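Weekly sync notes, structure subgroup
Attendees: PM, AL, DS (notes)

Item 1: joint prediction request from the bench team. They want all four components modeled as one assembly rather than separately. Inputs as received:
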Amino acid sequence: MTISKALEAAYLVGRLERLARSGVTVEGLNPAQWEALRYLARANRFSRTPAALADYVGSTRGTISQTLIALEQKGLAARRASARDGRSVELALTRRGEAVLKQDPLLHLAQDIALGTDDDPAKLVTTLQAILAATIARNEGRAFGVCHSCRHFRRNARPGASSPHHCGLLDEPLSEADSKDICQEQEAAA
Amino acid sequence: MTISKALEAAYLVGRLERLARSGVTVEGLNPAQWEALRYLARANRFSRTPAALADYVGSTRGTISQTLIALEQKGLAARRASARDGRSVELALTRRGEAVLKQDPLLHLAQDIALGTDDDPAKLVTTLQAILAATIARNEGRAFGVCHSCRHFRRNARPGASSPHHCGLLDEPLSEADSKDICQEQEAAA
DNA sequence: AATCTATAGTAGCGACTCGATATCATCAAG
DNA sequence: CTTGATGATATCGAGTCGCTACTATAGATT
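Output from the run, pasted for the record:
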């Protein structure tokens, strides 16, 4: 009984996503490129690398490389050699990239969700997070959660400083803005 | 406030679907082929045509034609000239097609949903349906709802008969099984 | 220091997907 | 019997993405 309802929900998710995606070549960006832009807008500075992005979207590095090249050519993202690791590349959105994100076709879906959940979209968010966690676990992937809910996050370790929080794993100070970002290393607090 | 939660939910839906889809070439079927199989398993006999399928998945007829050819070559679906309309083709799953559906990769997602909604997946289903309705309306598409909730559905118009129900639009008798199928013509009851 | 192994990223190839167009057959209307 | 609309298919091409191979760097081992 429960399983049939769950199956029905799975069908709906699949169909919803397909419909939301149809006709989505807005701004000349393909879905993978949109997803990369979204990620770059929300990932913290330690997670803005091609490898992290590849893990996040469940794709390969080769594919991500192509996506990033395309974004760079369009002037929406920038690649810069990392100072810490000579092999590594740091990614960032450009001004234009941030502007283009305001045209994100997913905003239409967000409106539909707002309409369809009139009372509490928050409930839907928690439900989806739980489902996503199960899916990620099955795929043996990382959660990529938000920094401030990580078990390595130490709130207000330096009171008064401009970066008052601290990441115990990376041993790095964190600003308030940092704490809201997506982090590759995130492990949910117990 | 509400809109930011809705946006968060939209992100989650997108990511969930992408993860669920990754590595999905099970049984040598691509996502479009899976979706066609699913549709054929759930659509009523008036809606099992290439054109209806194309409308349902929001694709073009040319693309659907290729998908169906592939499915036919694999022995999963059958095409038969329609008796009513010489231009039209009637689709059906084969035995093998029904068997293969039991390997549907979406079943994994269904399990994740069952895990993530432990208490009431039914609530999620109604929420998703409402969202989907909004999306379809925005795309100016048809709802493709279930037969028995259609305003043309007349329950038990012929009591005792093997096909006791009736469709006022097509003027056709309907069995109990028919009434649970997806119908292209469906219009939600007022 | 020298070497070895692992990792970050890129390049290029190739399979595949899918939409656009053109074509043909059939139906419905005048 | 035209004319226009519709269902379906074949063909073509753009684009997407994963795989393999390759280079460069980092870190570990001796």
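Discussion: The longest helix of chain A spans residues 2-21.
Action: AL to compare against the crosslinking data before next sync.
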